[in-house]
Structures are given as C-alpha cells and as structure tokens.
Amino acid sequence: MITTHNHHTRGRFVRRRGWRIAVAVVAAICCLTLTTSALADALASARGVAMGGSISSLATGVDAARCNPALLGLVAHQERGVELFGLAADIHNNALTLNDYNTYNGTYLTTQDKADILARIPTEGLKAAMNVDASALSIALGSAVLAVEGVANADLNVSRAIIELMLNGNAIGDTINLDGSCANAVGYMAFGLSYGRPVYTLGTRQVAVGATVKYIRGLGVEQMVEHSGSLSTNTTGFAGAGSFIVQTSTGGSGYTVDLGAAVKLSRTYTAGVSFKNFLSHISWSKQCEEHGYLFSFDNATVDNWDEDEVVSEDYTIDLDGFTSNLPSVMNIGFAKTGGRLLWSLAWEQGFRRAAGSSTTPRLSAGIEWPLLSILPLRTGFSTGGNNQTAFALGAGLRLGSLHIDIATITGASLSPSSAKGTNLALSTGLYF
Fold first, then answer.
1. Which residues pair with 75 in a beta bridge?
2. Phi and psi, residue 260, nearest 5°
3. Which of 405-408's residues contact partners 24+ apart within 8 Å by CB, and which partners?
4. What ranges do the domains of the chain cover?
5. What is the pLDDT of residue 299?
C-alpha cells in the first residue's frame, strides 16, 4: 500500500458477507473507469490523426508546439494565426473489433465462440482506453505558440484470467490471479507557452531547440496504488485474498515541461526528437480520498458463505493530499517536408505504463497529397503502443486563410468493421 500525507480518520470499515463477495473482484476493477469524469502529442491535431500520429517532424504552427517545440525554430515550420477549435476523441481496446461485437452481441455463446473470444485476448489481458483532447483559441506567433487545451485520459486492464472466468466459470484446481488488472484516469486543463530557436545554420541546414512550459490545472484523478489477489477452487470450497486501493481527487495544480531538438537536413527533409512531460508534477489537494476494498476467505462454500469463512472490508478515508505526474514520452521523427507529396515517420516510446502512455513502442507513418491546392488528402498507419494496428484517413480544406481538417481511424484494414474502437478528430483555424 502506498502511503501519502497524513490523513484524517473518517474511515468507514465494514464487514461484508454474502453474494457481494462473488461479484466484488470484477466490480472493483470495472467500476474504476465507470466512475471517472483519455493519445499522444498529435491527438488534438486532425492532420496528425489522419497521418497515423506520425507528424512529429512535419508539424507546423500549433501542431509543432504539440509535437516538438523545436520545430518552431525552423522557418519552414512557423505559422501565424489562430487555431479556433480542435477536438479529438479516441476510445479503443486491444482485442475486439466492431465486427466481433456485431457477431457476438445478443447471441448465445457456444463453446467455440468462447474459445474464439479468448483467442483474441492477449496474454497481458483486455486493455481499454479513452483519450479526449480539446483546444480553443491557440495562437501561433512564428517561433512562439500560446495554447490552451483540455485533456482526459483513462485506461483499464482486466487480466485474461478474469475474462476466462466470466466466460467459462471455474473448475476444481483453478487459480485466478488478479495481479494484472488495473485502472487509472486523469483530467486536466493545460495553459502552455512554446518557443523554438535555431542554434546552428549552414546553408539550408539548420539545428533548432525548443521547449514548452505548461501550467496544469487538475480537474480530477483516479489512480490505483495497490491491486493484488487471487482466487482458487479446491475440493473443500473457495479460497482467496486480495486488495484494491485507489486514490482520488477533484482538483490540483502543477506543471509540465516538454523539450525537443530538430534538424533541417536539407530543403526537403527534417528530423527531430522530443520528450513530452520531461518534467512533470501535479499536487492534488481538493477532496482527496483513498478508497479500498479488501477481502479474504478460506474453504468458502454456498452453505457457509454467510459465516466467518468470508471476510471483507471496504473503506473511504480523507487524505490531506498526494502528488502524481504525467508519463514521459519520447518521440523520434523523420519527414519529407518539401515538394508536392509529403510523408512522415515516427517512433514513440513511453517510459512507464499510465493513462495515455505505454511502454510498448509505437511506430507510425503517414502521407499527405494535395488532390487540389485547396484539398489535401491524407492517410496513415500505426502499430504498437496502447493502440493496435490501424489505418487512418483524413482530408483538409483550404479556403484562403481558413483551414478545416477532419480525420478518422479504422482498424487493421480500411474497413470500419475492423476497428477496435472509434477515433474522430476535427480542427479549424485561421492562418496568414
């Protein structure tokens, strides 16, 4: 159990028996994301979503501030204007597609159906995530950007053993390990200033560095600080023990710092590296609470379920406060930034698993081609990270200084039924 600042003793400890124990293990995990109030740097950029999230060395203006602030030090990536509105929502899982849902929803599951569903669940379990990013009135001033955004990230991981228990029930000798299950969520407003400047120039070659400093206003957080336990079935009954402890808060404040470097290799090619949330700290101070559920039982059966063999406690206590930070993410990109056909590649690497971040590398690629001068078409591909293999599609509309971009992500094929969730993005602005 992780300790925090000293807490007040407004505890509610209750001894539970009966049927509640039977559902508590799954409910304690699943309710975590249901009670919360969410992708990477390019999420709020419809152009970035359409190119698979690969634009970390191709982005300009407000998008450059999101992806790699060092790009603002390169003249070709600077813009002047206002992003009036940007919104992107991404809800996905790592196992079941829309086609799977349509196939199995509302039908009787045969033994083969259950086996097919389990075969789709990876060894690490069923992962689901929600990411929402909204921005308004972000201002690009050449080498500087002022941006305002709201972010919500949530993720859930249910161990494969629990899914198997739900589908097939339990047999004598079975042991269900709950250690792989967790859930986290965070929501906040960010007010950022980004700046990039060149540090070396030789002909068409240029090296620039940049940084983004953000003031974070925390809106809410829910983080699991302890999750462990197991259930087993033997000839004399059920045995098991475990605990789930979560900290929550409805307000806090802090900061993040992003760093980056970019190189203009020639008139046509650009490369860069960035570290999002290189430094990060949020102090949560409003309505801070710790919620826990602990259970244990030995030789429990249907006949003695209400006796002392089954013991559980749930509690809520006030906390003076606690701290958290946003996950650090590295992104390395390479892009063709000149000519009619533009393309980009990116490798994203998180350093810990958290809401909105994964330690699994994410690779992405994208292409932008102007069908007409006012109508750029885009497509992209990504694999790894919190997301599974997916294609992306999008387009833009350029009417004088008005820019409108829209994008969506499908699944492992271009068919919408192959998608393991939904992702839509829209952004619009005036650029001069």
1. none
2. -160, 160
3. 405/45, 405/46, 405/47, 405/50, 406/46, 406/50, 407/46, 407/47, 407/48, 407/49, 407/50, 407/378, 408/49, 408/50
4. 20-431
5. 61
Q: Find out whether 242 and 229 touch, Cβ atoms under 8 Å.
A: yes
Spatial separation of the C-alpha atoms in residues 5 and 290, rounded to whole Å: 11
**Which three-class secondary structure string do you get for the chain?**
CCCCCCCCCCCCCCCCCCCHHHHHHHHHHHHHHHCCCCCCCCCCCHHHHHCCCCHHHCCCHHHHHHHCHHHHHCHHHCEEEEEEEEEEEEEEECCCCHHHHHHHCCCCCCHHHHHHHHHHCCCCCEEEEEEEEEEEEEEEEECEEEEEEEEEEEEEEECHHHHHHHHHCCCCCCEEECCCCEEEEEEEEEEEEEEEEEEEEECCEEEEEEEEEEEEEEEEEEEEEEEEEEEEEECCEEEEEEEEEEEEECEEEEEEEEEEEEEECCCCEEEEEEEEEEEEEEEEEECCEEEEEEEEEEEECCCCCCCCCEEEEEEEEECCCEEECCCCEEEEEEEECCCCCEEEEEEEEECCCECCECCCCEEEEEEEEEEECCEEEEEEEEEECCCCCEEEEEEEEEECCEEEEEEEECCCCCCHHHCCEEEEEEEEEEEC
**What is the C-alpha separation between 61 and 430, in angstroms, rounded?**
11
- Predicted TM-score (pTM) of the model is 0.78
What is the pLDDT at residue 20? 35
**Stronger pLDDT, 27 or 266, i.e. the higher one:** 266
**Residue 22 and residue 19: Cα distance in Å, rounded?**
5
- pLDDT (mean) for 356-361: 72
pLDDT (mean) for 401-420:
80
Cα gap 93→422, rounded to integer Å: 10
Please tell me the distance from the alpha carbon of residue 315 to that of residue 293, in angstroms, as a whole number: 7
Q: What percent of the chain has a predicted confidence (pLDDT) above 90?
A: 47
Q: What is the pLDDT of residues 6-43, one digit of tens each?
A: 444 334 333 333 333 333 333 333 333 333 333 444 45
Task: Provide the pLDDT for residue 65.
Answer: 95
Given this model, what pLDDT does residue 35 score? 32
Q: Which residues contact 119 (CB under 8 A, 6 or more apart)?
A: none
Token pair of 132 as six digits: 């929402």
- Residue predicted with more confidence, 231 or 280: 280
Please state which CATH number belongs to domain 20-431. Answer: 2.40.160
